[in-house]
Amino acid sequence: MKFVTVTALCLASAMALSGCKIVPDTAENDATPAADASGDAARIEALLASSYDTELLSHIAAKAQSVATLRGQIAADFAAATAEHGASGAGAGAPVNFALKDTGTVVASKLDSRARTLDLDVDADGTADVVLQLGPVVRGSALRDVAPKLYDFTSFRDQIEFAKLGRALNDRASGSLTIPEGDLIGKTVGFTGVVPLKSAKDKWLVTPVALEVMP
Fold first, then answer.
1. Contacts with 116 (C-beta within 8 Å, 6 or more apart), sequence order
2. Which of 84, 103, 202, 210 could bond 192 through an S-S bridge, CB–CB 3.0 to 4.6 Å?
3. Model confidence over 32-62: pLDDT tens digits?
4. How far apart are the C-alpha atoms of 63 and 85, rounded to whole Å?
């Protein structure tokens, strides 16, 4: 009887063990994303999670000026305004990126496409001074390039990964905006964002990170 009992216990133990799966501690189970392009999305997502709210938005808020103030500085001396308030994008010929915070009246809008925009008059002359691009299609990489110390090109694998970061920042910003339904013409809108400029004559196409439509 003892022999039968011992044998049964051994069989039960073997059957129980056969149902277990031992997972080795290999690189496949490592949470670190792959260094090649397959890991870009995970790395960029982690970077935005650690930097967007706490560092990028704080940087833009600290550097932001009104449209009138920045326009006057650029008209007086574009190079001086760049040195004091702007940040040049990566590569030759890249625009200079300036942080803005202002309020204006909506004089035109395009909200029926994926490249939604609001044209704002900020100096009450009846004409648009800035165009806010609301996305989800957003042109340029102003949000990335306004903070070159935070998002340094040399920290990325190549230009492709750096471009993916720019798109991810645009997606994050446009996804955070709340746009009321209905006709916005005549409404007052407050915004914080970034405008890329190559000269004082450029159109002011702003990528906003915050938007408030007043009642």
1. 109, 110, 133, 134, 135, 179
2. 210
3. 777 666 678 999 999 999 999 999 999 999 9
4. 7
